[in-house]
Design brief:
disordered N terminus; lysozyme activity; alpha+beta; three-stranded antiparallel sheet; Lysozyme; glycosidase; 6 helices
Length: 150
């Protein structure tokens, strides 16, 4: 996997851009991936249950929306391609990265698209402007996020 790192300054603001295989996502870096994994449970031995798989607890719909990333030399149309990729930490990062490249935005409208926004997108999907404290599981995600980020 090839990483290119860019620091961009625009109107006095600096942002971090990560590039893997040509995909560039502002403020999505190793620390954010670790935090997103932590919030989802980050169980490296998690198989699939109730339609969700792997350390990031990814659904098939999320994988499809991300463009069906796969393990090297795998076929996205193979029946188990989703499960195999989602259960592999590095491949699941490709899924999250592709999803964020497509749906990433400033969910909380604070002027920056950052790891908090990516966490909201992972929880709510592209309609990410809803607060997390409205449900028990949302509050659990918010608490986990605060533990890993602060």
């Amino acid at each position: 996997m090839r990483w290119l790192v860019f620091f961009v300054t625009f109107a006095g603001f600096s942002c971090f851009l990560a590039s893997v295989s040509g995909v560039r996502i502002s403020n999505l870096n190793g620390a954010c991936f670790r935090c997103l994994c932590h919030v989802a449970g980050c169980d490296m031995h998690r198989g699939c249950s109730e339609g969700y798989c792997g350390p990031f607890f990814i659904s098939r719909v999320y994988w499809v929306d991300a463009g069906k990333p796969t393990l090297p030399d795998d076929d996205p149309d193979r029946k188990e391609a989703f499960e195999d990729c989602a259960k592999d930490y590095h491949c699941s990062i490709k899924i999250v990265e592709s999803y964020m490249a497509k749906f990433g935005k400033d969910c909380n409208e604070d002027g920056v698209t950052d790891c908090f926004d990516y966490m909201l997108i992972n929880y709510h999907g592209a309609a990410c402007s809803q607060p997390l404290n409205l449900t028990k599981s949302g509050r659990r995600w918010l608490t986990s996020y605060k533990q890993c980020r602060f």
